């Protein structure tokens, strides 16, 4: 929503308090400094139950044909005990450990060792070295944007090795899915623990660290804003985008290959899921430079929430539709398939165009046209922890005049399309739309709380002009 402008003269930049009736709140954007009881209860709940939720969903598919109720019924009626279910759960294997280690190592190599070349021959693509947003401490980090390149190289090697050289089966991910889950958990907990230790003893930028004094909150939400090793390995950018999102399309392709192996065909519902989610993944990497301006990079610290979430939650629960369709192949009628495809495309169009409008507005410093007219905006200011004053503009035109997070509305429409492709026999594939609705609604509220702390009265002026968050006239 915002576009950063040039800083004012030095006497203004050195001013230590705001003139915007925000007092010290301007230097406190980002995650919380203090923990209330509700936040602590939420953190403890997620730390205890999020890993169990992932296990429960994957186990339900492996042992109960994707029924979420039958495991509970078996346990409540005494037909089975927890030990019975656990005994049937595949354990970690050396093969899975080797696959996962090779996978993560390969993504690190692509991230660190191959400067981007895609921006040199793809018109409109922004890659290579790019600057991120200003951190609360006033730091502007540089990033090597090469996610699209990593995605292309990875998928070319996947198809060559699976279908031409036959070094491995294209179903390899599905065949090792639960053993790989344990490996992903190990990495998720390891990187989260390392990030916390690093935040205490050798942070990249101490001024961008936040300590609440509560171990559980700091572990989950993170201490360091932008933990790095060396100049270029940025934990947040790597784990948010690689290895989980690069793997997303490979996981779906493995599901499609398994469906072909089991039933002799790939259903149109599986094709829909692969296409719609593939578009979403490619969009992420095509616009990776824009991602540097999003809430994940601009506000979230790096802790268990991102570290474990990107390693485990994302690849295992964002791909439930494809996993479900392996166990329950659905062949949609042509009208239904076309309708779902249209819904997915409309959702993507809204998501992409809303983000494009904001990006264009930011890149041109509002010197552009939105829907054929010069954009309208609210001018605002904020301060970093060192007292430097910055100026921004909050757009109130185009989709951003309809709702403050209308890109999320498009995202939810696309999410619903993924779920509808699976039919209505089970509720498991609909977890995604329920989760995304909760996540994005919470993100709206969380983002706006931070923006209020950051912009003060200017944010109140903005919300008076654009009163709705997601749905115009409703919410």
UniProtKB/TrEMBL annotation:
What are the recorded GO MF terms, alphabetically?
7-dehydrocholesterol reductase activity; cholesterol-5,6-oxide hydrolase activity
Naming one, the record's GO cellular component terms include: endoplasmic reticulum membrane
Highest taxon of the source?
A: Eukaryota
State the compartments where it is located.
Answer: Endoplasmic reticulum membrane
Keyword set, alphabetical order: Cholesterol biosynthesis, Cholesterol metabolism, Endoplasmic reticulum, Lipid biosynthesis, Lipid metabolism, Membrane, NADP, Oxidoreductase, Steroid biosynthesis, Steroid metabolism, Sterol biosynthesis, Sterol metabolism, Transmembrane, Transmembrane helix
Stated EC number for the protein is 1.3.1.21
| Gene3D superfamilies, sorted | 1.20.120.1630
Protein's pathway: Steroid biosynthesis; cholesterol biosynthesis
Chief location of this protein within or outside the cell: endoplasmic reticulum
Looking up InterPro entries in the UniProt record yields: ERG24_DHCR-like (IPR001171), Sterol_reductase_CS (IPR018083)
Membrane topology for this entry?
Answer: Multi-pass membrane protein
Q: Where is the composition biased (Basic and acidic residues)?
A: 1-14
Q: What class of enzyme is it?
A: oxidoreductase
Report the protein name in the record: 7-dehydrocholesterol reductase
Give the classification, highest ranks.
Answer: Eukaryota, Metazoa, Chordata, Craniata, Vertebrata
């Amino acid at each position: 929503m915002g576009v950063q402008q040039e800083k004012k003269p030095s006497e203004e930049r050195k001013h230590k308090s705001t003139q915007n009736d925000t007092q010290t709140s301007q230097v406190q954007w980002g995650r919380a400094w203090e923990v209330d009881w509700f936040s602590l209860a939420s953190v403890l709940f997620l730390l205890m139950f999020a890993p169990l939720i992932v296990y429960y969903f994957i186990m339900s598919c492996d042992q109960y044909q994707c029924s979420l109720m039958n495991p509970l019924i078996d346990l409540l009626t005494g037909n089975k005990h927890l030990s019975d279910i656990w005994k049937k759960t595949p354990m970690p294997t050396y093969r899975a450990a080797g696959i996962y280690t090779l996978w993560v190592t390969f993504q690190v190599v692509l991230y660190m060792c191959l400067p981007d070349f895609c921006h040199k021959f793809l018109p409109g693509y922004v890659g290579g070295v790019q600057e991120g947003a200003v951190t609360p401490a006033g730091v502007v980090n540089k990033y090597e944007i090469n996610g699209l390149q990593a995605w292309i190289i990875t998928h070319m090697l996947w198809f060559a090795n699976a279908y031409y050289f036959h070094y491995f089966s294209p179903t390899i991910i599905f065949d090792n899915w639960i053993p790989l889950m344990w490996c992903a958990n190990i990495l998720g907990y390891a990187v989260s623990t390392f990030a916390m230790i690093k935040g205490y003893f050798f942070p990249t930028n101490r001024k961008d660290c936040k300590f609440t004094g509560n171990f559980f909150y700091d572990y989950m939400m993170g201490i360091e804003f932008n933990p790095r090793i060396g100049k270029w390995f940025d934990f947040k950018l790597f784990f948010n985008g690689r290895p989980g999102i690069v793997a997303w399309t490979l996981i779906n392709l493995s599901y499609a290959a398994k469906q072909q192996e089991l039933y002799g065909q790939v259903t149109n519902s599986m094709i829909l899921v692969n296409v719609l989610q593939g578009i979403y993944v490619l969009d992420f990497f095509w616009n990776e430079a824009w991602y540097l301006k999003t809430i994940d990079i601009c506000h979230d610290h790096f802790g268990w929430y991102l570290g474990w979430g990107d390693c485990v939650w994302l690849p295992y629960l964002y791909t439930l539709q494809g996993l479900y369709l392996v166990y329950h192949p659905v062949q949609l009628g042509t009208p239904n398939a076309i309708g779902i495809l249209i819904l997915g495309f409309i959702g993507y169009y809204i998501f992409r165009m809303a983000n494009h409008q904001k990006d264009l507005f930011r890149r041109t410093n509002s010197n552009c046209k939105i829907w054929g007219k010069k954009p309208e905006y609210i001018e605002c200011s904020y301060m970093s922890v060192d007292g430097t004053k910055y100026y921004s503009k909050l757009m109130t035109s185009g989709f951003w005049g309809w709702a403050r997070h209308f890109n999320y509305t498009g995202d939810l429409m696309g999410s619903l399309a993924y779920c509808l492709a699976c039919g209505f026999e089970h509720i498991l594939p609909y977890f995604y739309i329920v989760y995304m609705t909760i996540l994005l609604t919470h993100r709206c509220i969380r983002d706006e709380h931070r923006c209020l702390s950051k912009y003060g009265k200017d944010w109140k002026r903005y919300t008076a002009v654009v009163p709705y968050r997601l749905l115009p006239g409703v919410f």
